[in-house]
Amino acid sequence: MTRSDRPEAGEFSNEVWVLGEDRPCGEISSVTFELSAKARELSDALSSNTGERHRVTALLLIDSNKTNKSNRSKPQDAGYYGADRVLAAKAENLPFDRAACARILAHLAQESRPKIIIASATAFGRSVMPYAAALLGTGLTADCTGLSIEPGTNLLLQTRPAIGGNIMATIKTPNHMPQMATARPGTFSIPAPNPEKTAEVLYPDLPDGLFSAGVSTIKFDKFTRDERTLQDRNVIVSGGRGLRRAEGFELISALASLLDAGVGASRPVVEMKWIGYPHQVGLSGQVVSPKVYIAAGISGTVQHIAGMQTAGKIISINRDPEAQIFNVSDVAICGDLYEIIPKLIERIKAKRGRK
Ligand SMILES: Cc1cc2nc3c(=O)[nH]c(=O)nc-3n(C[C@H](O)[C@H](O)[C@H](O)COP(=O)(O)OP(=O)(O)OC[C@H]3O[C@@H](n4cnc5c(N)ncnc54)[C@H](O)[C@@H]3O)c2cc1C
Q1: What 3-state DSSP class applies to 10?
Q2: Rounded to the nearest whole angstrom, what is the distance from the C-alpha of residue 315 to the centroid of ligand 1?
Q3: Which helix (H) or strand (E) holds 126?
Q4: DSSP element (H, E) containing 341
Q5: CB 3.0–4.6 Å: which of 19, 70, 223, 233 could bond 262 by disulfide?
Q6: What is the block-wise mean pLDDT of the chain (355 residues), using blocks of 10 residues?
Q7: What is the Cα–Cα distance from 209 to 1, expressed in whole angstroms?
Q8: Superfamily grouping for domain 230-350
């Protein structure tokens, strides 16, 4: 497709699209479910504002040569989280051929003319969405932390940090369609699946011209180690500058291992090399959405909160009664973390010992 093939301005359909992610190992990535749920919310808001039914479509780009027969998730699973329809586009070298992925997205979007396309700001989403946006002649707001529908205009409100994270900017795209945005993984919570809700699965025909010459998959090696990232954890225990020394993370890790939790951190302690960057939570680290987030010795600046505010329950330990983190906490423990965490560990062990 060339830029001159772009859709002319005109009517767009009552559709909200999600660019989903199908992992080569045969699993649909959880970001597909996260964004299908968000798209459902946007679509329901549009339906109720306009009185016209809007539909959620999830697009999956699937390797037709996938040899793994033990698929743990199937395209229709996106329905459990809010998709009405799944377009399962199958071809060789997907999803590795990112240029082809972008051309397929643009081609199908040109046919169906959705009003909105959202994707996760993963390596996949970050490479496919800008290319597709350029092909469709529209803009893209990257790394959003909030997406909603503006009453009255029914435009997509795309909120993201700006000016070095010091302000939150809300961006609208009134003159171009589709409105396209990415959100970092974990920005929105994933609801419980609703097995009653099913999605129609369609396998669209793809013209040959969409594929890149010279791209082929040589082999795929699946990780065999426990590769759980912070984003896969139900519980996270994070430490901040209040630990005062690198060894403080031994205490954080002791509590974390008791709770089968991941270890998180604020930025300054990563910068001081007390712990590695993959543990950093926040605006310039990971965005996480665990069921429980425990913050110890973290003050709760806007940049840290941007990374954990969607956690189910936030428990914080800080010796400053005025600490900002307490404003977003479900349980606020005011005191010295070096006294509180050992007591917590003791209590948990004692309780488990009694069972
Ligand atoms: C563009 C940009 C991006 C950023 N990205 C991130 C990011 O991704 N993640 C992030 O975390 N920050 C980020 N920051 C930095 C952020 O602004 C803060 O500097 C940082 O979050 C503060 O970390 P902290 O809470 O560990 O430290 P502090 O703000 O110094 O807070 C330490 C807290 O520990 C408490 N404390 C001290 N001793 C104890 C004790 N013994 N027991 C209990 N409590 C104690 C204190 O009361 C205090 O509240 C970013 C900043 C910018 C400008």
Answers
A1: coil
A2: 16
A3: helix 123-136
A4: helix 337-354
A5: 233
A6: 45 95 79 96 97 96 69 80 95 87 96 97 93 97 95 96 82 95 89 92 92 78 62 92 97 96 97 95 89 97 90 96 97 98 96 73
A7: 8
A8: TPP-binding domain (3.40.50.1220)
Q: What is the pLDDT of residue 1?
A: 43
3-210 fold: Rossmann fold (3.40.50)
Residue nearest atom 36 in ligand 1 by C-alpha distance: 242
Under 8 Å between Cβ of 210 and 104: yes
Which DSSP string do the residues of 14-68 spell out, in sequence order? SEEEEE--B-TTS-B-HHHHHHHHHHHHHHHHHHHHHSS--EEEEEEEEETT---
State both tokens at 279: 């543990």
Q: What is the Cα 190 distance to its own chain's centre?
A: 9
- Yes or no: say if 186 and 209 are a contact pair by the CB < 8 Å rule: no
Position 310 scores a pLDDT of 82
Q: Are 178 and 138 in contact (CB under 8 A)?
A: yes
Q: What are phi and psi of 239, to 5 degrees?
A: -120, 150
Which amino acid residue places its CA nearest to atom 41 of ligand 1? 336
**Is 243 in contact with 274 (CB distance < 8 Å)?**
yes
Q: Does residue 319's CB lie within 6 angstroms of at least one atom of ligand 1?
A: yes
Domains 3-210 and 230-350 share a fold: yes
Whose Cα sits closest to atom 29 in ligand 1?
Answer: 299
What is the separation, in whole angstroms, between the first and last Cα of the chain?
64
| Residue 178, burial from CB neighbour count under 10 angstroms (0-12, 13-18, 19+) | buried
Alpha carbon of 268 to ligand 1 centroid (Å): 6
Query: Domain-by-domain residue ranges, the chain?
Result: 3-210, 230-350
Triad 204, 206, 209: Cα angle to 5°: 165
The answer to whether 138 and 36 are in contact (CB under 8 A) is: no
- For the CA of 166, the closest atom of ligand 1 is 53
- Chain centre distance of CA 186: 4
